[in-house]
Amino acid sequence: MSGGFDLVRPLPGAGFGGILRLQDAAGAAAMVAAAERAPEDLPRALAACGGVLLLPGMQAMAERPELLLRLSRLFGPEVENYRETGMAPNMVHPEVPEIFVVSNIPPVLRAPPPLPEPPLTAEGRLPVQYPHRRGWHTDQSYRRPPPDVSLFLGVEPVPQGQGQTLFADATAAYAALPEATKRRIEGLEGLHVGSSAKRRRQDVLAGETPRPLRPHERPQRQPVVRLHPVTGRPALYLCEYGQMDWLEGPFLGLEPGPTGEGAALLDELMAHVTRPEFVYVHEWTPGDLVIWDNRCTLHAATWFDAERLRRVMWRTTVSGNPGPAYAGEARSWLAVA
Ligand SMILES: [Fe+2]
User: Fold this and answer.
1) Which residues neighbour 198 within 8 Å (Cβ) at sequence distance 6 or greater?
2) pLDDT tens, 244-257?
3) CA 20 to 30 Å from 140, out of 19, 75, 216, 228?
């Protein structure tokens, strides 16, 4: 790389991802300045690593949030302004509306995911594989076009051993599918929808009455196999319980509903993509910035003890290069005034 960066890959214990540092300096201000001098380097490193990049030592961004915003802009033409896209105001950074705050303390008060049942695997490990581990998704897949890249800063992460973020390499997972499965999912589309639409698997199983959806909330189809617009490589593009439409989906053209043929295929694919060999477990250190590509990875949050611990994380979302399949499309997710 031209900008004086040092890239170590893969991430520890994983088959993909990388850690990026500056060779001659430390800290967020130096990193952002160097990244802006060589604006191709970080996006290229992200692509070369299969879609997950860790930048340690970025804690100065917590005092200077504009540094996070400047770094985000290198990953695409549009950084989402959450004040303009209908996010609840308590979840948006008060001064920087491009920052979405994920926190268990007021005013955000977001609860952590539940513990898996049982909490550990038979081997005493952190469960990562679906369906033991739940919550796997790719950000905002209920939008067309969907976003490209998310940046997640550990402002105040919880101590290691809980509150991890899990990542799955959907490119490697696709490549490892049996040929018959690849043929079966060729051209297949999933139907994605936000969890507030009450079309989650658990909602449909519980017999909840679906509410009428406004145009910008409607389920959106997405290719199950997505060609990455930068690398050209195919990757599985899926979510599970909370972000697929379990009334009309999860797949177009297959028997719908939470117990049908489509459900069986989704369970099979989700269990495959989250096999431990495709997963990286990120244990947070304050100041870690983890950047992921939603076009070729899935992720999931894990439980932490929200009664005793504070957790404050900041996220930005970058879009603008979803690939030719979305060319020229209006944004499905903007409410028409
Ligand atoms: Fe997410």
Assistant:
1) 208, 210, 211
2) 999 999 999 999 99
3) 19
Regarding the domain delimited by 5-326, which CATH topology (the fold level of the hierarchy) does it fall under?
Double-stranded beta-helix (3.60.130)
Q: How far is the CA of 31 from the centre of ligand 1 (A)?
A: 25
Q: How far is the CA of 44 from the centre of ligand 1 (A)?
A: 22
Say how many C-beta atoms besides its own lie within 10 A of residue 268's C-beta.
Answer: 13
Cα of 180 vs centre of ligand 1, distance in Å, is 30
- Domains of the chain, by residue range, sit at 5-326
pLDDT tens by residue, 167-182: 999 999 999 999 999 9
**How far does the centroid of ligand 1 lie from the alpha carbon of residue 139, in Å?**
5
**Can you read off the two tokens belonging to residue 132?**
């033991």
Residue 100 has pLDDT above 80, yes or no: yes
**The three-state (H, E, C) secondary structure of the chain, written as one string:** CCCCEEEECCCCCCCCCEEEEECCCCCHHHHHHHHHHCCCHHHHHHHHCCCEEEECCCHHHHCCHHHHHHHHHCCCCEECCCCCCCCCHHHECCCCCCCEEEECCCCCCCCCCCCCCCCCCCCCCCCCCCCCCCCCECCCCCCCCCCCEEEEEEEECCCCCCCCEEEEEHHHHHHCCCHHHHHHHCCCEEEECCHHHCCCHHHHHCCCCCCCCCHHHCCEEEECEEECCCCCCEEECCCCCCCECCCCCCECCCCCCCCCHHHHHHHHHHHHHCCHHHEEEECCCCCCEEEEECCCEEEEECCCCCCCCCCEEEEEEEECCCCHHHCCCCCCCCCCC
Confidence (pLDDT) at 336: 63
Cα 258 to averaged position of ligand 1 atoms, centre (Å): 22
For ligand 1, an ion, list residues with CB under 5 A: 139
pLDDT for res 85: 86
- pLDDT score of 333: 85
